[in-house]
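Standup notes
- DV: blocked on the single-chain target, sequence here:
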Amino acid sequence: MTAPTRPVPGTRLVFRWRKWDGTPHWQRDCLYLGSDEWGDWFGQPVGWPSTRPGREIVPTEPCVTLMPSTGDYAFTHNPPPHRTRVYIDLAWDVGWSAEGSPAGIDMDLDVVQRVPVEPYVDREGVLRQPGDVYIEDRDEWDEHRIALGYPLDLVARIEQLAVDLERRVRSGTAPFDGATADGWLARLADLAG
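- DV (later): unblocked, structure below
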């Protein structure tokens, strides 16, 4: 997916996710912030909702999301006091839709870095330490890759990418270094005014 022209920074958009079988998934109200060497950046101001069938989240902190040109993930950075610093949705065909808004297929696996103040047990029952970086939703991945018939070459690619992203987040390389996203958070603050 490629937009013929990008919107003007500050344009309000809806980032639309769906699952492999076409069913709707998350929709996030956001602002287009601009692009850099890593890809296109979007910001979600405080109070702008994220919804999916049966659930709505209204954020109490802003966040920014990177949509790289590779089309295989979307990286969301949350500043303090949010307890999830990094959330990367592994994806297929994430990019600009024909309608000129960001869209993609959620591929279940996520790379996460939560920053709790003490050890905790994650959704899969694993004890995590503060600052751990890990791959989440392996159970959903295992179920969906069979039930929804993910192609085997795509399965191998997504699994390899998840491990690579986990390593890159753990090492703090750009754009996962915090400083890169902080610049876009400042831009969001200016545009959301």
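- Follow-up: The two ends are 30 Å apart (CA to CA).
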